[in-house]
Design goal:
With about 140 residues, the protein is of the alpha+beta class. It is about 50% helix and about 15% strand. The protein has two domains: about 10-60, no CATH class; about 75-135, no CATH class. β1 and β2 form a beta hairpin.
């Protein structure tokens, strides 16, 4: 893939140019069938009857590649290792101590309200614990 010209280049050096974007969010790139008919790589490249190679690329593929690259860096590995001590711990406490394992409510709006109230109560408990341990300089 050549990001500068927004095209793909086949092993024979031909350009697969942009055609259209589908409703599912994929860009379609296709080769010229006249050029591909006489190509020596045709059997390895495509089995299409009209001798056209098509490639689909998601419109967010650049961002997905960047996220995948960042996921494997040392800094993000360290951050992800701390996740179990911070974020996952909060959800575990909500499940065990604050009734978030089950709900009697139905509907997204009502369940969202219950979750917000639960996490607000947990935040108030944290705030109270912090102020009791260290006097507030006010």
């Amino acid at each position: 893939y050549d990001a500068h010209f927004d095209c793909y280049i086949c092993p024979n050096g031909q350009i697969l140019s942009y055609r259209t974007t589908t409703r599912e969010g994929y860009k379609q790139y296709a080769s010229d069938s006249e050029v591909c008919k006489s190509c020596s790589f045709l059997d390895n490249c495509t089995q299409s009857q009209n001798h056209t190679k098509q490639i689909h690329r998601h419109i967010w593929q650049d961002y997905l590649d960047e996220a995948d690259h960042l996921r494997l860096t040392e800094m993000n590995k360290d951050i992800y290792a701390k996740r179990k001590e911070t974020i996952e711990r909060v959800f575990a406490e909500a499940k065990e101590k604050h009734g978030m394992r089950w709900t009697k409510l139905r509907g997204l709006k009502k369940v969202s309200m219950q979750a917000m109230l639960t996490f607000a109560a947990m935040n108030l408990k944290k705030l109270a614990n912090w102020t009791w341990k260290e006097p507030c300089p006010a």
